[in-house]
Amino acid sequence: MAGDGISQTPGAAAPWWKSGYVWLIVALTLAALAGGLFTVYLAMQAPPEPVPGTSGARLGDNAALEPALQARNRTSIRNGEAMGRSAAPRPDAGAPQD
Q1: Exposed e or buried b for every residue in 9-38, given b needs 16+ CB within 10 A?
Q2: Residue 22 near residue 16, CB atoms below 8 Å
Q3: Residue 78, helix vs strand vs coil
Q4: pLDDT (tens digit per residue) in 7-58
C-alpha cells in the first residue's frame, strides 16, 4: 500500500462518502421528499364519487341521528351541572339590565 500515493494514518478521518450516517440522512431526506410529492399528487386528483346508500343517515332520516343527539344533550347537561350551571338557560339571560 505504500505505492498508491495515499497515506493512511491511524487517526485520519475517512472521506464523507464512506460514512454510513451521511447516506442514512440523504436516504431519509429523499424518502420524505418523495412521500410529500406523492401526497401532493394524490391531493390534486379528483375525489371519487360517493357511493349512495352506504351511510347510516340519509337526508330527512333523523331516526338514525337520534341516539347521537340524545347522548350529546345528556353530556352537555351533565357538564353544565358539574360547573354549577342550571340545566336549562334562563329566558331572561340575554336581556339587558335596566
Answers
A1: eeeeeeeeeeeeeeeeeeeeeeeeeeeeee
A2: yes
A3: helix
A4: 566 667 889 888 999 999 999 999 999 999 999 999 999 887 777 765 555 5
Cα 87 from chain centroid?
35
pLDDT digits (tens, 9 = 90+) for 50-80: 777 655 555 556 666 677 767 777 776 776 7
- DSSP code of 7? -
Contacts of 65 (CB under 8 A, 6+ apart): 57
Is residue 80 within 8 A of residue 87, CB to CB? The reply is yes
The x, y and z cell numbers of residue 66, run together, are: 337520534
